[in-house]
Specification:
Layout: E1 2-4, H1 8-19, E2 26-28, E3 44-45, H2 52-66, H3 68-72, E4 83-87, H4 90-105, E5 111-113, H5 115-121, E6 132-136, E7 140-141, H6 144-157, E8 161-163, E9 168-175, E10 180-187, E11 190-193, E12 197-199, H7 205-212, E13 219-228, H8 233-236, E14 245-248, E15 253-258, E16 261-266, H9 283-294, E17 303-313, E18 320-323, E19 327-328, E20 330-334, H10 344-356
Parallel strand pairs: 1-2, 1-12, 2-8, 4-14, 10-19, 12-20
Antiparallel strand pairs: 3-7, 4-6, 5-6, 9-10, 10-11, 13-16, 13-17, 14-15, 15-16, 18-20
Helix pairs in contact: 1-6, 1-10, 2-10
Bound molecules: flavin-adenine dinucleotide.
Domain FAD dependent oxidoreductase: 2-354
Protein name: Sarcosine oxidase subunit beta
GO molecular function, one term: sarcosine oxidase activity
């Protein structure tokens, strides 16, 4: 079995396949494990989604992340201060209230907050124009690379071969009864025969699809992040130990504690739909403007470092999980549209189940890419 890409998805799939007792598993990574979008993520882990399947996947993942250190022996710096959406329109508040009701029916503790409750929980926020908040106290953030490292070490321990600096370039297939069937991949380090291959190549999945003759509608979109110098909590009037991952839903500006400092992110009109992940010098002023508007108390923090990375966007901002109808044996787990890190643990489990004929804990057939030709878009609304 060949897994293409050792981000959180590939690493988790490899581990779960090995746990099922599958043999001859090769995890192929063009660079080093975790070096793609996973290492660029803000680390946010939340169960607040609008799509039932996403809620189920996120909930399962969070359970795993809470016990990660015990199970995998790796500290992932999990901070469980919750995740707060700021809502500035009645229409959004109504939609979120319906989603919160769904999340509660699925056993979550998420809830709507009044503006006064938002102000109490997030005193650094200017609540001008805010009409409500949505909050799940069990959400939070953690360190993505640590999760990859935990899965890769555990997978290796179970016999998975991890090929670093090794690029998959071509696919071989044979005519099957109903469709072509994958038989092998060519890599920069040689050919690997395999009747099952999974594309977990993140933002680059569309290119893998092209090489294999499989339509994977995944497009890269640049996003940027800034981490501040350590902050003076008393001077800013904040309590890092309590501060939730806070996101302004209409602008997607967000902030969360990052060690002794703060991590900020937001989109920018200049963000390109391309494989360009260079930092944009004009982005910091955009961020500064949003801080000034929504969190002016944080306006004087000093930037320490930053980076840009790629979201892996699909037409409906929902993931693609399944086996290609054009190429039997070609599985895919990609297109998580900017919320894939938090889904990694559960998606790895589900994809390994699909590949080994086990029943997944949740029905992911609605995330099959065939939806675009049959039922149409399956929109996830709670996107960042
Ligand atoms: C700025 C930013 C902030 C984000 N914040 C969050 C967040 O707070 N929470 C969240 O859940 N998600 C977040 N995300 C999204 C998250 O990073 C991704 O959804 C997730 O990491 C996808 O994981 P992956 O394993 O599918 O992809 P990746 O981590 O990109 O892994 C794919 C791997 O495939 C490899 N690869 C590509 N082509 C080939 C090839 N031909 N041969 C071999 N290997 C190949 C790449 O090198 C890469 O390592 C954020 C993303 C960005 C950019």
């Amino acid at each position: 079995m060949v897994i293409i890409g050792a981000g959180v998805m590939g690493a988790s799939i490899a581990y779960h396949l090995a746990k099922h007792g599958a043999k001859d598993i090769v995890l192929v990574e063009r660079n080093v494990p975790g070096s793609g979008s996973t290492s660029k993520a803000a680390g946010g882990v939340r169960c607040q989604f609008s799509d039932e399947v996403n809620i189920a996947l996120a909930t399962r993942s969070l359970e795993v992340l809470r016990n990660f250190e015990t199970e995998f022996g790796v500290d992932i710096d999990l901070v469980s201060n919750g995740y707060l959406f700021l809502l500035d329109s009645v229409a959004d508040a109504e939609t979120f209230a319906a989603n919160v009701a769904l999340q509660q029916r699925m056993g979550l503790d998420s809830r709507m907050l009044t503006v006064a409750e938002v102000a109490e929980l997030a005193p650094y926020i200017d609540t001008e124009g805010i009409v409500a908040g949505a909050f799940n106290p069990g959400d939070g953030h953690c360190t993505p690379e640590a999760v990859v490292s935990g899965y890769v070490s555990a997978a290796r321990g179970l016999g998975v071969q991890v090929l670093k600096n090794c690029e998959v370039t071509e696919f071989e297939s044979t005519e099957g009864a109903d469709s072509r069937r994958v038989t092998a991949v060519t890599t920069s380090k040689g050919r690997i025969e395999s009747a099952q291959i999974v594309c977990a190549a993140g933002a680059w999945s569309g290119l893998i699809g092209e090489a294999a003759g499989v339509d994977l509608p995944v497009r890269p979109l640049r996003r940027e992040i800034m981490v501040s110098e350590p902050v003076d909590e008393a001077a800013l009037g904040i309590d890092l130990a309590r501060m939730p991952f806070t996101i302004d839903f209409s602008t997607s500006f967000y902030v969360h504690p990052e060690g002794p400092g703060l991590l900020f992110g937001c989109p920018d009109e200049a963000d390109v739909w391309d494989f360009d992940d260079k930092r944009n010098p004009d982005w910091l002023p955009t961020l500064a403007e949003l801080i000034e508007t929504r969190a002016p108390a944080l306006g004087n923090v000093e930037a320490k470092r930053g980076w840009a990375g790629l979201y892996e966007m699909t037409p409906d901002h929902n993931a693609l999980i399944g086996e290609a109808e054009e190429l039997s044996g070609f599985f895919y787990a990609c297109g998580f549209s900017g919320h894939g890190f938090l889904m990694g643990p559960a998606v790895g489990e589900v994809v390994a189940d699909l590949m080994t004929g086990h029943q997944p804990f949740v029905d992911v057939s609605g995330l099959d890419k065939r939806r675009f030709a049959t039922s149409g878009l399956r929109k996830e609304l709670n996107i960042v």
